[in-house]
Amino acid sequence: MTVKDATAIVGIGRTPYFRRGQSLPLTKVEMACQAIIAACDDAGLSVKDIDGFAYYSGGFDSAWIAQVLGIPEVKFTASLTGGGGGASAAVGLASAGITSGDASVVVSLMTLQQTPDARLGAAFATKGKSAYSAPSTPQMDFVLPSGLFSPGQMMSQLARRHMHLYGTRREAFAEIAISQRDNAIKRSTARFQDPITLEDYFGARMISDPLCLFDYTQENDGAVAVITTSADRAKDLRKPPAYIMAATHGGAGRWGSAYQLMQMPDEYFASSGHREVAKRMYEAAGVTAADVDVALLYDHFSPMVLMQLEDYGFCGIGEGGDFIEAGNIRYGTGSIPVNTHGGNLSEAYVIGMTHVYEAVEQIRGEAVNQVENCQIALSTGGPASIPTSGLLLRR
Amino acid sequence: MKSALAASGMDEFADLNPDAYTMKFWEAAREHRLVIPECNKCGTFHMPPTGFCHECTSQDLKFTEVPGTGEIYTFTIARHAVIPMLQAVVPYVIAVIAIDGAPGVRMVGNMIDCDMEKLQIGDKVKVVFDDVNEEVTIPRFTLA
Ligand SMILES: [Zn+2]
Q: What's the distance, CA A120 to chain centroid?
């Protein structure tokens, strides 16, 4: 549990975003270190000030980074369990390492290099040349012989159930893809710069019906690092601090392995799995959805943005489709601007860290698609197996 | 009998890695029986098979044979081959089936021998035991 306002994100850094596999011959540790150095420069800190590492989704080899960058002493190195769902809570873990007194300057980091044998789209395939492919487990024996291999195939199950229960239309998914692309176009760092029309959307190739090409995150390479320190120390650094109001992670126990095994209770099968995390986050921060000025929602697949809007309380359960189709997520005109950076769908996919990066820029007032008078920003990680995560930053 | 889906290449993915709890499910499938773990103490069903009832944590469990019918809870049509080996298999349907006789339990399975473009959530289905090779039988589903 984070202590409200006791810590702040003070530095953000990243590599360029590359088409998948195109970051070679950079090595992963080189990308990681470049992002860390950029984040230190942004903060006005030296790399030698770093004394902690806080990760998610398997983390990174702190020992090797410390050796490569000559970090004087490592005092905290930890990772959340699970996958990309932990993205926003890696910052919470950093915060915990600082308020506990273990460390003072903590890096959170993700590096992604999707070479041809390391494509996340085949993450669960048991055959074919893929670094993610592994033999089945006793549990996944109930999934993999049916050819349920990709996160997109899994999420499409939830999307269709949501459409069935609430009359959600593909037009709503299209609006997510189109509005985020519009945001990306204004941002030179975004990988996709061509506008998408409704006609383009409905003409696009179906990948895992009802999800088409534009509902899917892109595949790319890149690294993003953020630096967290104490509120006291943050005051004297280069950029305005983005104070951590709350960072929570976890999920209902029977969300469990979620869409991998498809046994979630009926009442939240067609959800993002974020409801408990959202509730605890708002309680810890002492705010509600109405206080949030910009929402950076993990968007590996467009329907999961819709379900997060419901689970984070921007609209009622089952109302996400109408809410989105009414224009509520548009930058500049909507009631809650969503993924002003273009998100995973259109800017870049670094497993959730680009959302934290954009949240900090919004709080500082230096975002490309800056939300006017942005006081509070929400960033999320997941839907995924436990944990999912939510983070609230304030000015 | 081996299904056309299996023959088109899906059989490549039928290598099982059972443990003490899942083995009984697969042994029953080989005999063309669908069995689901049920708690002897409180009657709750669960899947996949584990050593515990998630409701009362009892380890006093049995495998209960169910009729093999159910309904489509949700589904996707995989139209893109996520790995090249699936090129001859797509398009195929991956459905989540609510299993009759085991409240709350679902199974992931392919819908076979049906018009995939006409499938709907709520369609009634029945199990088809697909003998993909000399050792493994995978339950799949077709319209009832
Ligand atoms: Zn029980």
A: 15
Does residue A56 have an active-site annotation? Answer: no
Minimal C-alpha gap between A151 and chain B (Å): 11
Hey, are the CB atoms on B22 and A156 less than 8 Å from each other? no
What tokens were used for B31? 């005999």
Determine how many CB atoms are found less than 10 A away from the CB of residue A242: 27
Percent of chain A whose predicted confidence (pLDDT) is above 90? 90
Predicted confidence (pLDDT) per residue in A35-88, tens digit = 999 999 999 999 999 999 999 999 999 999 999 999 999 999 999 999 999 999
Radius of gyration, alpha carbons of chain B: 16
> Cα of B125 to ligand 1 centre, how many Å?
28
The yes-or-no verdict on residue A12 having pLDDT over 60 is yes
Provide ipTM, 2 decimals: 0.97
Q: Is residue A369 part of a domain?
A: yes
Would the pLDDT of A133 be above 70?
no
> Is A167 part of a structural domain of the chain?
no
**CA of B117 to nearest chain A CA: how many angstroms apart?**
10
Exposure of B57 by Cβ count < 10 A (0-12 exposed, 13-18 middle, 19+ buried)?
A: exposed
Taking the Cβ of residue A148 and every Cβ of chain B, the question of whether any pair is shorter than 8 Å is answered with yes
Buried b (16+ CB within 10 A) or exposed e, A117-127: ebbbbbbbbbb
Q: Where does the pLDDT of residue A123 fall: very low under 50, low under 70, confident under 90, or very high at 90 and above?
A: confident
Which of the residues A17, A259, A282, A298 is marked catalytic? A298
Burial of A334 (C-beta count, 10 Å sphere; 0-12/13-18/19+):
middle
A262 shares contact with chain B (CB less than 8 Å): yes
Q: pLDDT band for position A1 (50/70/90)? A: low
The DSSP bridge partners found for residue A216 are A301
Domain residue ranges of chain B, discontinuous segments joined by +: 4-143
Report whether the peptide linkage leading into residue A72 is cis, meaning its omega lies within 30 degrees of zero. no
pTM for the full predicted model: 0.97
Contact B16 A141 (CB under 8 A): yes
Query: Which residue type does A202 have?
Result: F
SS3 assignment, position A122: helix
Contact B94 A121 (CB under 8 A): no
In total, how many domains does chain A have?
Answer: 1
pLDDT at A277 (0 to 100)? 98
CATH number of residue A262's parent domain: 3.40.47.10
A144 closest CB neighbour out of B13, B75, B79: B13
Q: Which domain holds residue A18?
A: 7-117+217-394
Which pLDDT belongs to residue A129?
A: 60
A59: number of Cβ within 10 Å? 18
**Active-site annotation holds for A349:** yes
